[in-house]
Amino acid sequence: MLYESTVPAYANGLRALSAQLDKALAWGKDNGVGELQLLAARIAPDMFPLAAQVRFSCLQALQSPTRLGAAGAPAFEEDAADFAGLQQQIADSLGWLETVDRAALDADPDRAVGFTLPNGMAFDMTAATYVRDWAQPQFYFHLVAAYAVLRHMGVPLGKADYVGYMMQYLRPGTAPAS
């Protein structure tokens, strides 16, 4: 249950983010918006820029399986300096997610999970509650923030870019005509 709620969802989200970054880079080249300009873009002055949102998306995808018993996750101490670096962070995260042992994550949904934020706030909950109330919201917050930064900059992304992985489930003959 915990594995299914985390690892596949994170992989889907990170693959979608990778495709959004590819689209953004191509759009930027066609529209005179430089890579560094996109990396530094943010939605609001007190929010992190795109490069940090991508790094945080990756870190959130790694952190929850680690807190649930997985080991060996890559560490990303700094924001990537270019789009190749963003894509490498995503690729490294996806590669590690493929190694996560389902049994380790699913072993005991009622086991205690505790963590402390850099500001000193500490939380204690069950593994299942952690996934539902912290891990998933944190991952999607940063994933959506990265998407929103790109939209804010003018990159022509839509919902299909955010949930493109859903096309594998599309019932034949139900797609709208172009």
Q: Can I get a quick summary?
A:
The protein is mostly helical and 178 residues long.
What would you say this structure looks like, in words?
With 178 residues, this protein is mostly helical. It has one domain: dinb family like domain (Four Helix Bundle (Hemerythrin (Met), subunit A)). Strands 1-2 form a two-stranded antiparallel sheet. Helix 3 runs antiparallel to helix 6. The protein is globular. It starts with a helix and ends in a 16-residue tail after the last helix. The relative contact order is 0.20. The mean pLDDT is 96. This is DUF1993 domain-containing protein. It comes from Sphingopyxis jiangsuensis. InterPro entries: DinB/YfiT-like (IPR034660), DUF1993 (IPR018531).
CATH architecture: Up-down Bundle
- Sheet of most strands: 2 strands, antiparallel
Beta-sheet strand percentage?
5-15%
**Whole-number tally of structural domains:** 1
CATH topology: Four Helix Bundle (Hemerythrin (Met), subunit A)
Please give the number of β-strands. 2
Would you tell me the overall average pLDDT?
96
Spans of at least 5 consecutive residues with low confidence:
none
Sequence of secondary-structure elements: HHHHHEEHH
Walk me through the topology.
Elements: H1 2-31, H2 35-40, H3 50-67, H4 83-97, H5 102-106, E1 112-116, E2 122-126, H6 127-153, H7 159-162
Antiparallel strand pairs: 1-2
Protein name: DUF1993 domain-containing protein
Organism: Sphingopyxis jiangsuensis
